[in-house]
Amino acid sequence: MTGTEGVICVLKPPGMSSSDAVTDIRRVLNEKRVGHTGTLDPAAAGVLPILVGRATRLFDFLVDKQKEYVAEIVFGKATDTEDATGEVTAVSDKKVSAAELEAAFSAFTGEIEQTPPVYSALNVNGEKLYKLARKGKLTETPETKKRTVTIYGLGLIRQTGENRFLIRIVCSKGTYIRTLCKDLGAACGCPAYMGFLLRTRSGAFRLEDSYSVSEIAEFKEQGRLDEAIIPMDRAIPFIPEIRLSGLSAKNRNLLIHGAGIDLNNAVPGKPHRIYLDGEFLGLGEVKDGKLVITVWLGDEAHQLKGMKIEGRVEKENGIGRKLGFPTANLTGYDKRQLPSEGVYATAAYLDGTAYPAVTSIGRNPTFNAEKLTVETHIMGFDGDCYGKRLTVCFIKKLRPMMKFDSAEELKAQIAKDAKEAEKLARSSKYTENI
Known about the structure:
The protein has 10 helices and 25 strands. By secondary structure, it is of the alpha+beta class. Strands 1, 2, 3, 4, 7, 10, 11, 12, 13 and 14 form a 10-stranded mixed β-sheet that branches. Strands 20-21-24-23-22-25 form a 6-stranded antiparallel barrel. The chain starts with 5 loop residues before the first strand and ends in an 8-residue tail after the last helix.
């Protein structure tokens, strides 16, 4: 696995949206596969776990975890956004004491029902609530958007001023702290809004493990990204592990390539972190007495052995031919079988004949291409293969996709790739008859 795959905890400042943070990390790391584990309000600050590379496959295992916040609740005013950014909709001279606030906590602990703010990112008929509210088309959140959330812990930290209090909240995914502050105000008989919000924990990821985008960029420049990136297996310590060793070559290959091996000493139907001889391979489950890897997160070189895709050749875009390396563009293949984007030494089977080949998988960054393509330059073949069936067997990954300053630089690199690929292919079992 690459050194830039894992989880980065971004210390999001107020004013930055969660999608902005994802965009920034994608730019800093030059990685397309980036996503967060749950939106953090643009006005809020705090820890925002971001999944990088194949760690995005862990989203379903991380998204539902507990969140912890420190918020300031301000009594005496209500706003249409339920936070400090909105227009004042109600005022009161009532003074709320710390004792009154603490007495209200018990009614908001455990499972509670919330009506999310009208100024929220929830959708109604394909349009976000806050956009409808800004257009004056919506003044209240629809009943259908009510939700049940869980408050695991609610406590007073301290009073920060008249009618101002810092509180700590431990809650489930989907809880609106703005709404909680508004509802606490109603319980105390005084309008209230959220003055400040800091997320201190999201699942196992804490504030002390978080870095600003600029700090992450500095880590990259200094070659210290490993200090900021949490490896994939360490990001899911709550999932039990299975450690295997001493497997036969047959069972090792069966496990790595998605088949099952006999194993009965694990809870069936539950995800486990799978280690083979100390190496993390991904997540697996025991089904009918057999262990099967369901989410592959190990070294892709293991799976390349024996990996192949099959499809039909479509007309190429002409770029490869202009560079002197015509390619067969593959279509109709099973996308689930594709390895990661990059350039590979391969063997190409066409009309029953095996040829050494070099295959590119990805969006050609030198020409700013947006569509992912599978392009194979078949060495020793100079005929017309359009519309024919083609099988590509992967031998070794040569390099990641790269952007070159000119077509000439790209052409020179392709020549190097082709030379290395031909050497590897001719010594591979897939091309024994070449």
